[in-house]
C-alpha cells in the first residue's frame, strides 16, 4: 500500500516564474509571442501568407485579445496538405510552415495517424531539443528520478512523438530501458525484472494490463518490481479515481499524468489535473474556443473549451493558432492538492470524439468516469459501439461492458439499472448495455480504443 506523505508542491520549470504574479507571467509571454510571430512571418511562407490574407502584420498584434481574434491558421487537415506540398516543391515532408532550414532538423516525430496520414508535428532543431529537455528533467526530478538511475520506457519507438522524450531522459543522466511496446507484455516485464528501473513511462492502459499479466509471465506481482514512479501519457485513465488508485495500489508507487513538456500532475492522492509548468514554451491553456461555434471564450476557473496551440519558443516547426481538437477543462484556482498557483487542465476528450445524442453533447471520458464508479462490480473496460459515423447517434447508444470477476450473473439486471440511472443523471443519456465476460474486451499495448466502429 502506498505510504502517505505530504504532497510536494509543483513549481514552474523555469524558477523565474515562481517569483512572478499571474499578470507578470502574461506580460512575459506576450513579449515571447511578439518575437515568435515576427520570426514565423520572416521565415515561413505559410505563416506569411496567412497574415497577408487577413491584412495584418505581426506588429499589429498589440494585446492577447487581438491575437485570440485571429482566425485558425492550422489544423490536422491543413497540416497534411502543406506537408504534401512541401514534399512536392521543396523535397522535405515537414510542411510549408517550417521556419528553420531542413538541414537544422535533428528530430522528427509523427502523430499516430489514426485519423488520417501521420503529421510531422513534432519536428525540432537541436536548440529546440535542448530547450525541451529541461521540462522533462523537471518532471523526472519532481517524481524522484535522478541521474544514474534507470527508467523503463514502453511506448512505440522510432518515428513516433513519444521518442522525443528519450532525449530529455538521457539529458538528466537517467538511462532509458526502451522496450518497444510492440514487443509485447512478456518482453516489457522481463526487461523490468532484469534491470529493476526506478520509474516507468507508458500508457495507463498498459500499466493496468501489466498488473494482470505479471504473475503469469514473470512469476511476480508488479509491486515487486520496485518502481518508485510511473509517468503515463496519451489516455484519460489517470484522471479516473478508481483507475489511479488501482494502478498505485498494485505498483505501490505514485502515478503521474503528463502532457509532453507542457506539464504533469502532482503527487496528491486525488487527481487535480495536469499542472501547466511551461509558460515560456506555449500559451497553453489560455487560448480556448467554443468547440461548436469556434469563437474565442474567456478562461475562468472550470471553463471547458477546445485548445488552440501556440508555441512561443520553438524554432523548427512552431504551431501558431493551431486547432488541436483537444477539449479540456481549465482551472485557474490554486491546486487543492499541492498549492500550485498556475493553470491546471483536465482532458475531457477530442472534438472529433464528441457524440450528439438527442441534442446533448456527450464525451467518452464522461461515460468512462461514470462507469468507473461501479468497479469492481465491473472491470471498467468498455467499448462504445458506433453503427454510424459520429457525432450524431441514433439512440440508444450501445455500450459493451465487462462484468466483474466475482459478479453474480443473477444480479446483472440490477447493476444495469443502476448504471443506466447514473449515466442518465450525469451524462444525459440512457444506453443499451451489452454485457461481456471479463477479459474479452482486449486491451491494446499502445492506446486502447474506446470506440468499436461498425461502419
TrEMBL record:
Keyword Ligase (UniProt): yes
Superkingdom, natural source: Bacteria
Keywords: Ligase
Gene Ontology MF terms: ligase activity
One Pfam family hit: AMP-binding_C_2
Domain AMP-dependent ligase C-terminal, chain residue ranges per copy: 359-448
Protein name: Phenylacetate--CoA ligase family protein
